[in-house]
Amino acid sequence: MPTLLRYGGYRFYFFSHEPNEPPHIHVDKGNATIKVWLATLEVARNRGFRTHEIAGIIAIIGDHQRMFVEKWHEYFG
Q1: How far apart are CA 58 and CA 43, in angstroms?
Q2: By three-state DSSP, how is residue 22 classified?
Q3: Would you say 12 and 72 are in contact if contact means Cβ atoms under 8 Å apart?
Q4: Where would I find the H helices in 1-77?
Q5: Are the CB atoms for 61 and 68 separated by under 8 Å?
Q6: How many CB atoms lie within 10 A of CB 24?
Q7: 0.85 cut: is pTM over it?
Q8: Paired residues of 10 in beta bridges
Q9: What averages of pLDDT result for each successive group of 10 residues across the chain (77 residues)?
């Protein structure tokens, strides 16, 4: 599971066994986890992050969106 970024205590990564899903990123911090679709920056799934945290996470993803998508396509082809 490649880690693409560590920022502010968050870990941004994707699982190596999810090539059949649209590009997305997982983010963990402590016991909280979230999955965000990269094309739309919509939350696919959230467990443990509060609303204000989600907005901040999505902003970070938006700042790195291009790199995340490029890395997704490099990894999965």
Answers
A1: 9
A2: coil
A3: no
A4: 51-76
A5: yes
A6: 21
A7: yes
A8: 7
A9: 94 89 96 98 98 96 98 91
